[in-house]
Amino acid sequence: MNIVDLRSDTVTKPTPEMRQAMAQAEVGDDVYGEDPTINRLQEMSAEMMGKEAGLFIPSGTMGNLVAVLAHCQRGDEVILGSKAHTFLFEAGGISALGGVHSCQLASQPDGTLALEDIRAAIRADDPHYPITRLIALENTQNRCGGVVIGLEYTQAVGKLAHERGLSLHLDGARIFNAAVALGVSARELAEPVDSVTFCLSKGLSAPVGSVLCGSGEFIQRAHRIRKQLGGGMRQAGVLAAAGIIALEKMVDRLAEDHTRAKHLAQGLANIPGIVLDAGTPYTNMVFMEFTEETGLSTRQVTQRLAEQGVLVGVVGTRRFRLVTHYWIDDQAVEQAIAAFAASLRAV
Ligand SMILES: *Cc1c(COP(=O)(O)O)cnc(C)c1O
Questions:
Q1: Which of 85, 193, 257, 285 is the most exposed place for a label (fewest CB within 10 A)?
Q2: Would you say the CB of residue 199 lies under 6 angstroms from ligand 1?
Q3: Domains (ranges, CATH) in the chain?
Q4: Is 0.90 surpassed by the pTM of this model?
C-alpha cells in the first residue's frame, strides 16, 4: 500500500539528487570554518535573505534559540505571539536556557500581532520591568493555519521595532512558502527584519538543518552561542550539500504543494461530516475537523485512515492538520480524499 504521510512537511526524505550531492560533498572541519560546502550554503542563504551572513544550524528550534540569545541578555523580554512556535513548541528553551522572559500577545487569526498590542507591550524604563529587547514574528504562521504574513505588515513591525530601539526576528521556518504564495522574494519578506531563520528540512526536503541569517556582527555572536549550545558541527558539509540543492531546486516548486493542498481541501469539502477551517489552505496546510454527529472519535478516524495508508496530524479533538509536500503527488491527494470518505461513512 502506498503510504500518504500528511502529518508534516518535516517527513520529506532527501531527493535522489540530494543524496548524490551528499555523497560527493567536499567537507572540512566547520568548527575551524573549513567546510567549503557549509560555507557555500551560508553564503547562498545570506544572499537569498538579503543579509550579510548566515549560519548553518542543526534545527529550526536551535536557530530560534540562538537568535533570541544573540539578541537578548538574561532578564530581557521578547514580544511574541501566543501561537508562536517559539512559545508553544520549543520546550521553553529561551527561558530555560537563556533566562529570556516572554511577553505573549494574542496571535490574531491572520497570524499577525496587532500593532497597538505591540506598542502597549513595550516596557518603559523602570526597574520593576524586564527590558523589552526583541519582537519575534513567524511567517508562515503555522498554528494560525499556515497563513502568510504580508510584506507591508512586516515592514510596519520593523519600523515600530527600530523606532523603539528594538530588534525584530523572523521565524521563517516556511518563509519560502510565504514568498511563493505572495509572489515576492524571500529577500523582500526578510528585508524589514534584523534576523531570520528558515528550515531546509521541511518543504524544501533536505534531511537536516536550518540557517540563521543577519548582520555580520550578529552572526559572529550567534556563532559563539551555537557552540555553547553544542551545535558546532564538524564535516556537516554532507548535510549542507542537500541544503544547497534545496535552495537551488526546491523553492519554486512549493507552488505545486499549495495547489495540491487546494485540491485536497476541495475534495474534503464535499465529504459529509467534514468542516474545513475558513480560508484554508493558505499555503501547504489544510486544517479541518469532522463533526460530532459522525459518532466517531479522533482515534477511530485516525486509525481508519492509517489502515488505508493515510497519516494525518492530530491538532485537537476531531481536528487534523494535513500538510502537502514533495512526496505527495496528485494520486496521493486522491487516495487521501477517498480514505476520508470511507472513514467517515456512517457505521
Ligand atoms: C518546524 C518549525 C520550527 C523548528 O523546527 P525544527 O523541527 O526544530 O527544525 C520553528 N518554527 C516553525 C514555525 C516551525 O514550523
A1: 85
A2: yes
A3: 11-249 (3.40.640.10), 253-345 (3.90.1150.10)
A4: yes
